[in-house]
Amino acid sequence: MKCPGKSLEDALLCAQSDGRLTVGVYESAKIMTDDPDSVSFCVLAVDEQFECDIALQIHFTLIQSFCFDNDISIVRVGDAKRLLAIVGDDKAEQLEDAHCVLITNPAEGSWEDPALEKLHVFCEESRGLNDWLPEISLPGR
Fold this sequence. Notes:
Blueprint: H1 4-18, E1 21-23, H2 25-34, E2 39-45, H3 54-69, E3 73-77, H4 80-87, E4 100-104, H5 114-128, E5 135-136
Parallel strand pairs: 2-3, 3-5
Antiparallel strand pairs: 1-4, 2-4
Helix pairs in contact: 1-5
């Protein structure tokens, strides 16, 4: 895939405009618990400031395991601030809230998002290369 970062940004913006975006570790965990079949894609954001946060790492491990067990495509980005700038969630006032972003499935009869489909293919190809949690660089502004 040539530009996975651009596809991720496009998928996030499309999901946001459709109201299919969940921002925050706890909010994401709630969606995964209540309706795991509704989750289509997961983005985990790690940056240097929070690399040593043991609680966050435990949450990430649990989220990753859940995604693997439920065939949910998952990627990692290295810039939580950039991810927050893209999703622009007013509720995520603190950077800590933007470490996990979920994209839920489109409503019945809706068009599939081509950028999201590209990301699913990217994740599938990465798993074929034993890269179970590929890292994507988001494009700068």
